[in-house]
Design goal:
Length: 320
């Protein structure tokens, strides 16, 4: 009898319609698209990636955006020798709206370094969060933006009198202008290196509804600025399906995370993937309609074993 790894078994199951073996609740669906499974890691090392590969993962997203060229090239070799790929680099939070221009300049340069690292690792995107604002806005369920679709500057963030949110509106607009100016400086280098600047939706008090975030991403009018859609980050602001449909073909990558809403639908708490409020089958079908043949990278769910994270992500991929 031939011994199959879990990775080979899952591939066979999906390919020949035996996905029902993975879960008794699975409804077999035929998708046009192929989603690739990943985890987040530091510099790729053989021990870690071998375990990930055995658990069914196709690649990784690297957190070491500031790796040296030698480290990046070595990490790429490790992944490729295992038949895996480093598909993205996580630069994460920047402070492009910082009042100190030297700090802004340093963060722009760090993002360039991340782009260079991505190129050497064989990745095609850098996850970037341009900035955050600390001025409180409406409750998540109260947000109702009125904004200019060209500039993405807002005049209203909630229904009714917005006087109490004036400081938030001003900080929001200043951050939008500062982020645009910084990202525009990155675009020529990103194009030269063939690496997409993928802006992530996070809890930064900015662009927290699908329409304005999609408008901001598209306002750069370049294929080198896309969205890194975290499928669980903004459930308390709008259903995940709304984010997928608003961003459409501007989705470069997806983070897989879950969030459990309270019974009243307001706020909630983080949950392991498939234990929260994300409607994963609906999201999978929406990604298929968009012809998204991309990466699904788990962020979080660290309380689960590697094998269990692989199993749950496999179920999402096959539409369960």
């Amino acid at each position: 009898m031939t011994t199959l790894s879990r990775r080979d078994f899952i591939g066979m199951s999906v390919g020949v319609g035996l996905g029902t073996l993975l879960s008794p609740s699975l409804r077999a669906e035929v998708f046009r698209t192929k989603l690739k499974q990943a985890l987040i890691c530091g510099l790729p090392v053989e021990k870690d990636l071998s375990a990930m590969r055995e658990a069914g993962f196709d690649g990784v997203e690297c957190q070491r955006w500031n790796a040296t060229p030698a480290e990046a090239e070595a990490g790429r070799a490790v992944a490729e020798n295992l038949g895996m790929r480093v598909h993205s680099v996580m630069r994460g939070w920047c402070d492009f709206n910082h009042p100190d221009p030297d700090k802004v300049k340093a963060d722009i340069e760090s993002a360039r370094h991340a782009i260079r690292t991505a190129k050497l690792l064989g990745a095609d995107a850098v996850l970037l969060v341009p900035c955050r604002i600390g001025v409180a806005g409406p409750k998540p369920w109260e947000y109702a933006y009125v904004f200019d679709p060209e500039t993405c500057l807002v005049t209203q963030v909630a229904e009714g009198d917005n006087a109490r949110f004036q400081a938030h509106i001003e900080a929001h607009n200043q951050a939008t202008l500062a982020s645009r100016a910084a990202v525009e400086q990155l675009v020529p280098y990103a194009a030269e290196q063939g690496v997409v600047v993928a802006l992530e939706n996070v809890w930064n008090n900015l662009w927290v509804k699908p329409d304005i975030f999609a408008a901001f991403v598209r306002s750069f009018r370049t294929p080198w600025v896309k969205a890194y859609l975290d499928l669980g980050n903004h459930v308390k602001y709008a259903p995940t399906i709304d984010w997928v449909e608003a961003l459409g073909h501007d989705i470069a990558k997806c983070h897989v995370k879950d969030f459990k809403l309270n019974p009243d639908g307001k706020d909630g708490t983080w949950a392991d993937i498939r234990d929260g409020s994300v409607d994963w089958p609906r999201v999978r079908r929406a990604l298929d309609r968009l012809d998204y043949n991309g990466w699904m990278t788990i962020e979080g769910s660290g309380s689960l074993s590697l094998a269990e994270r692989g199993r749950r992500l496999s179920l999402i991929v096959v539409g369960d």
